[in-house]
Amino acid sequence: MPGNRPEQEQSAVAIGIRRVEAGDVGVLDGLCTLLRHSVDQGASVGFLAPLSQATALAYWTRTVGALGTELVLWVAEDRGRVVGSVQLAPCGKENGRHRAEVQKLFVLPGHRGKGIATRLMDTLEVCARADGRTLLVLDTEAGSGAEGFYRALGWQRVGEVPDYAASPRGELHATAIHFKRMSP
Predict the structure, then answer these.
(1) Positive/negative CA dihedral, 31, 37, 39, 45
(2) How many whole angstroms separate alpha carbon 166 and alpha carbon 175?
(3) Which of 57, 157, 170, 183 has the lowest CB atom count within 10 Å?
């Protein structure tokens, strides 16, 4: 792993990272637990708290069913239990085939600080490069701890959009837009 990472890599040795294939319904329960715990702990990933099992299951069922060339999902697993995930949405437009959007990076609260998010992002970047992507973009809650994490991984902040999304508790907040250039 590259040096100077924001998390302790040695703690994540037992964690496996794998790409989820379309239709892999065996991962749904773990993804639902991950999403519900993350949202209930304040992660701003598109849902309001408390997040119901039905809403989480509907989201992940659609997502896993849509996996392919336009959406890629990786999970981090600790002894078969899903403890983190991240998504990559490669641009399919003719003039945008060099870029992709990072979406919904999160790790179970009890597994944070162990290098899992860094490993997920490293895996995503390797695969994005292999697919010819040289520009990645993402948005995250402005002022959140995630901003410092991304900065430590070499992401650059473009700016922010006020009142972009509601937090899990329902308060509007700004989102910060970031990008990262990668060599082919």
Answers:
(1) negative
(2) 10
(3) 183
What is the strand order of the sheet 72-78 is part of?
Answer: 15-20, 72-78, 81-90, 99-107, 135-141, 172-181, 156-166
Distance of alpha carbon 36 from alpha carbon 29, whole angstroms? 11
For residue 93, give the nearest of 66, 119, 64, 69 by alpha carbon: 69
Q: Whats the size of the chain, residue-wise?
A: 184
Q: Are the beta carbons of 18 and 74 closer than 8 angstroms?
A: yes
CA distances from 32 to 23, 55, 160, 174 (A): 15, 9, 29, 26
Torsion of the alpha carbons at 94, 129, 35 and 111, rounded to the nearest 10: -170
Assess if residue 44 is contained within a domain. Answer: yes
| Tally of structural domains, the chain | 1
**Interval 58-113: pLDDT, tens:** 999 999 999 999 999 999 999 999 999 999 999 999 999 999 999 999 999 999 99
- Reported as a single tens digit per residue, the pLDDT across 154-174 is 999 999 999 999 999 999 999
CATH number at residue 42: 3.40.630.30
CA–CA gap between residue 16 and residue 137 (Å, rounded): 25
**DSSP letters spanning 131-182:** TT--EEEEEEETTSHHHHHHHHTT-EEEEEEEEEEE-TTS-EEEEEEEEEE-
The DSSP H or E segment spanning 38 is helix 28-40
- Domain assignment present for residue 25? The answer is yes
